């Protein structure tokens, strides 16, 4: 009995041993792996084969159809076809593979195949690679966010084993953790938010753009060229306001003594091309978008006296007067110039109708009473004197007047003479 039992046990042991021996051929991998898109992933792998054999070739295939015959994404006997796959293993028992920058098309089944000097083996069914995106879930869906809303952003990834998230606003790190939360969101929270996995910083981050909308704020009126303008000139009142989305409608109001008047037009600019006197007054504007309205403070437009037409006329008058004055001045000046150049001119002129006379110059200080003919001639000069009607009387005055006056000097240097009685003239040089 005992012997029989012992035999049975030994038989079982041998059977077990034979089973172990028959399963010498093996490839061990995780059946499912999750890769974060954009990052690299290692597929851990080990393999066994009957003792005494030598591994000659190792390869990895993507997609079941290629498991046996290839093409392979990696094969030790051929040149690598891409840098995307890197064999980390060896030709003993390690068959790990690294995939760089995982994309969606890298998802699917992978299998390891190897050849020994006697046989070959494929690690069927291999490993299923699941490629997962980092995604941000927005608590309010894709609805418009307005100031004051409660908003929660949650970062998710299909790969459960990655859960250490880092949040960024416009590329700058802000906080760590699976979610972001605002219980009264403000316009300054607008921006681009992204999350990434701390352990896989190179993974493609999840991104969401937060645009917090709000009604008009800080509505104000400005005036160009200013709030004090001349009647008839152009003035532009501009209403500006901060709003998201931008202001859709502008309404202009004028405050008159007893009531409020809505001014025509719905543009941001209120233009008076030729500002009339009655444009004067107090104005404000109201800016509106879909979230609300906001009134500006009141500005006061003052229109002062002159019409532009008046200014034009006055300016024209000033120009005319100036031109006249300049003309008169020029005329006077040219006359003076003419007088001065007269003598020179006369020298050049042909003294056709001039009469030349010999003239006795008496001694200075001698009285006219003295008989000139009796006096010895000291000097003879030639003079030409041009008399017009007016100067004739002057000449007569000169006969009796003092010979030292300026006028007599002038006469002595000037002129032609048509009619001459030399005895009646005293010419001094
Ligand atoms: C295989 O080799 C890689 C790289 O040398 C190593 O990181 C990995 O731990 C090894 N795997 C096994 C199962 O030995
Ligand atoms: C990949 O992971 C996602 C999320 O965990 C799952 O829904 C999907 O079925 C997986 N795909 C494969 C091929 O296993
Ligand atoms: C939200 O914030 C604004 C200012 O940012 C404040 O005026 C308002 O009272 C806040 N609302 C709540 C409900 O806290
Ligand atoms: C955003 O605005 C709120 C009030 O509206 C203020 O308390 C907060 O400091 C602002 N944040 C930034 C980053 O400016
Ligand atoms: C947010 O992203 C959009 C589109 O990618 C870009 O146009 C915008 O300038 C970004 N905003 C900021 C504040 O970086
Ligand atoms: C209002 O607008 C003016 C000019 O656009 C700006 O200087 C000022 O800082 C704004 N004030 C606020 C509270 O936004
Ligand atoms: C602004 O006024 C014009 C005509 O005056 C009108 O056609 C237009 O619809 C108005 N726009 C808005 C936003 O009210
Ligand atoms: C702006 O002023 C008008 C006229 O006084 C008024 O009817 C309106 O309610 C005001 N709007 C706001 C937002 O104060």
UniProtKB/TrEMBL annotation:
Residues 1-22 form the signal peptide. Keywords: Membrane, Signal, Transmembrane, Transmembrane helix. Pfam families: Ig_2. InterPro entries: Ig-like_dom (IPR007110), Ig-like_dom_sf (IPR036179), Ig-like_fold (IPR013783), Ig_sub (IPR003599), Ig_sub2 (IPR003598). Residues 125-211, 216-304 form the Ig-like domain. The chain crosses the membrane at residues 311-331. This is B-cell receptor CD22-like. It comes from Cynoglossus semilaevis.
């Amino acid at each position: 009995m005992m012997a029989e039992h012992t035999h049975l046990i030994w038989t079982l042991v041998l059977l077990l041993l034979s089973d172990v021996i028959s399963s010498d051929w093996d490839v061990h991998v995780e059946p499912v792996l999750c890769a974060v898109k954009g990052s690299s992933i290692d597929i851990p792998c080990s393999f066994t084969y009957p003792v005494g054999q030598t591994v000659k070739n190792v390869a990895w295939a993507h997609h079941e159809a290629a498991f046996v015959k290839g093409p392979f994404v990696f094969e030790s006997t051929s040149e690598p076809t891409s840098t995307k796959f890197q064999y980390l293993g060896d030709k003993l028992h390690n068959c790990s593979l690294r995939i760089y920058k995982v994309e969606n098309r890298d998802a699917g089944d992978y299998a390891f195949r190897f050849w020994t000097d006697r046989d070959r083996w494929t690690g069927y069914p291999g490993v299923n690679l699941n490629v997962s995106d980092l995604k941000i879930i927005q608590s309010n869906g894709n609805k418009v966010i307005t100031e004051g809303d409660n908003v929660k952003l949650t970062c998710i990834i299909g790969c459960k084993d990655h859960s250490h998230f880092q949040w960024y606003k416009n590329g700058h790190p802000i906080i760590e953790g699976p979610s972001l939360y605002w219980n009264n969101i403000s316009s300054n929270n607008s921006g681009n938010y992204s999350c990434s996995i701390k352990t896989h910083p190179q993974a493609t981050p999840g991104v969401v753009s937060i645009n917090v909308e709000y009604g008009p704020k800080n509505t104000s009126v400005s005036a160009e060229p200013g709030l004090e303008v001349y009647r008839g000139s152009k003035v532009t009142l501009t209403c500006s306001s901060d709003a998201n989305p931008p202001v859709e409608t502008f309404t202009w109001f004028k405050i008159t003594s007893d009531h409020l008047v809505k001014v025509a037009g719905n543009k941001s600019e209120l233009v008076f091309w030729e500002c009339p006197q009655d444009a004067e007054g107090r104005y404000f504007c109201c800016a509106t978008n879909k979230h609300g309205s906001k009134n500006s403070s009141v500005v006061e437009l003052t229109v002062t006296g002159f019409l532009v037409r008046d200014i034009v006329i006055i300016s024209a008058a000033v120009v005319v007067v100036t031109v006249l004055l300049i003309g008169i001045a020029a005329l006077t000046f040219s006359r003076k110039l003419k007088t001065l150049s007269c003598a020179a001119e006369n020298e050049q002129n042909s003294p056709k109708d001039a009469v030349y006379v010999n003239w006795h110059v008496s001694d200075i200080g001698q009285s006219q009473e003295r008989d000139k003919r009796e006096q010895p001639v000291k000097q003879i000069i030639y003079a030409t004197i041009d008399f017009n009607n007016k100067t004739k009387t002057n000449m007569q005055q000169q006969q009796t007047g003092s010979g030292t006056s300026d006028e007599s000097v002038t006469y002595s240097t000037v002129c032609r003479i048509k009619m001459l009685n030399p005895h009646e003239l005293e010419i001094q040089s």
